[in-house]
Amino acid sequence: MTRLISWAFAMPSLTLPALALALVATGAEARQPADDALIEKGAYLARAGDCTACHTAPEGEPFAGGLPMSTPIGTIYTTNITPDDDTGIGQYTVEDFANALRNGEARDGHQLYPAMPYPSFSTLTDEDIEALYAYFQHGVEPVAKENRDSDIPWPMNMRWPLEMWAWMFAPDNVGFTPDASQSAQWNRGAYLVEGLGHCGTCHSPRGLAFQEKGYEAGDEAFLAGAELDGWYAFNITGDEDHGVGGWSDEQLVTYLESGSVPGKAQAAGPMGEAIEHSLRFLERDDLKAIATYLKSVPAVSEAGASRFTQGQPADDVARLRGVALSEDAPQDQGARLYLGACASCHGASGRGSQDGHYPPLVNNSVMGSTHLGNLTQVVLHGIHRETNEGELLMPALDRDIDNAEAASLMAYLVEQFGHPDAEAPSAERIAEWRRAKH
Asked: 147 Cβ partners below 8 Å, 6+ apart?
């Protein structure tokens, strides 16, 4: 990929009204020829913002929307952001586009749900909005697909309360102001993490109104970890025990571009998707900037929830739980399941493969956490994503084991490799996760 043109905030500024005049106001006239370099820059920025994650449904056309998103009051469906004039954003001017990104307001005036991370996108510079606009108007194929109404029942589906939400919780700032006391690399990382990359959308805890408890370094609980749709987005503050303070810059960069750091972590779920569709395509300079910034975020500690474990791996199969395996010994069911379904890749000792292709379970961040939703999701639903080196696949066990068996396997994993304070989920809890997934 062509190198990103400088930083957005280091470029001369153009006002949005000037851009609107330059790009023309309405209808098909809004899509005037755009510079190829600007379109390419917009494509890079769209990947950095992982726009496809929400606006492309499984098996759907790129950016045509329709992805269901669960909320506490019902399901909403993402919108078509292709340049189709009737069902997409083909009629949007650059001002309309900027207003949607920064303020969460659609062209017809209705307020968007905060599932659209406009509080983070409010920091986008005029130059980056111009590039994104050029890409979505000229670099994306138009798809005629009507937007789907939410499944939220009346009166909770009324939009006017969303305007109150935006007034109360969305940041007032527009654009990005570099911190003169920090390096250029740190500022680039701040721009990507706080704004375009909207990392806090998943990694920052939420309040009663579903608002993020912070949008920038220094805010309370910013990037301190949060539950999300059955997964746990880990603490990525600079805390050495619970966050990423103990990671080297190179380990963080490697994780962001590959999703795997042997002995540390293996990405799955929403984080795996972010790496597959977004982070692995970024320039290493941008990944280094992200690493620099994350390690500077004020540390937030989680009592008793260290991400790492000093688990004692079994030296051989005979040491598993210290007992002989037998068909009539129910307490050994988890060990039998591990040997049959997991040990061929992760090893009987849980050390993984020497080349790092099969990650170790010992000292693994997911295994070493007291938040076991991620481990359960991976056991049940596996991992399947594309990497820069090819396909990564871990088979799902969802159809092969029942809830009681899954609970036994989880109990074994936690006892053998897990955090000493972790409590393995019960069969009933696993049943709840399964129902939520489907």
From this structure: 65, 77, 79, 80, 87
**pLDDT beyond 60 at 1:** no
Report DSSP state, residue 349.
T
| pLDDT of 18 strictly over 50 | no
Report how far residue 121's alpha carbon sits from residue 101's, in angstroms, rounded to the nearest whole number.
Answer: 6
Distance CA 96, CA 107 (A): 6
- Joined together, the tokens standing for residue 332 give 């050994």
Question: What average pLDDT does this structure show over 393-416?
Answer: 92
Whole-number Å distance between alpha carbons of 425 and 414: 10
Phi, psi of 68 (to 5 degrees): -75, 135
Q: Which amino acid is at 27?
A: G
How would you class 85 by CB atoms within 10 Å of its CB: exposed for 0-12, middle for 13-18, buried for 19 or more?
Answer: middle
Three-class SS state of 185: helix
**What single string gives the DSSP state of each residue in 31-48?**
-----HHHHHHHHHHHHH
Quickly list DSSP for 307-355. S-------SSGGGGGGS---TT-GGGHHHHHHHHHTHHHH-TTS---TT
| Domains of the chain (ranges, CATH numbers) | 15-145 (1.10.760.10), 185-296 (no CATH), 317-437 (1.10.760.10)
CA 344 to CA 336: how far, in whole Å?
12
Residue 264, pLDDT above cutoff 90: no
First CA to last CA across the chain, in angstroms?
38
Residue with tokens 């293996």: 266
Beta bridge partners of 384: 393
CB 211 within 8 A of CB 104: no
Summarised one tens digit per residue, pLDDT across range 179-191 is: 999 999 999 999 9
The pLDDT value given to residue 31: 56
| Number of neighbours of residue 39 by Cβ within 10 angstroms | 20
The HSE-up count of residue 115 (CA atoms within 13 Å, CB side) is 20
Confidence at residue 6, expressed as pLDDT on a 0 to 100 scale: 32
Which of the pair, 326 or 187, is modelled with greater confidence?
187
Q: In this predicted structure, what is the pLDDT of residue 4? A: 34
What burial class does residue 178 get, using C-beta atoms within 10 Å of its C-beta: 0-12 exposed, 13-18 middle, 19+ buried? middle
| Dist. CA 186–CA 181, nearest whole Å | 10
pTM (2 decimals)?
0.84
Under 8 Å CB-to-CB from 18, ≥6 apart: which residues? none
Q: Before 153, cis peptide (omega within 30)? A: no
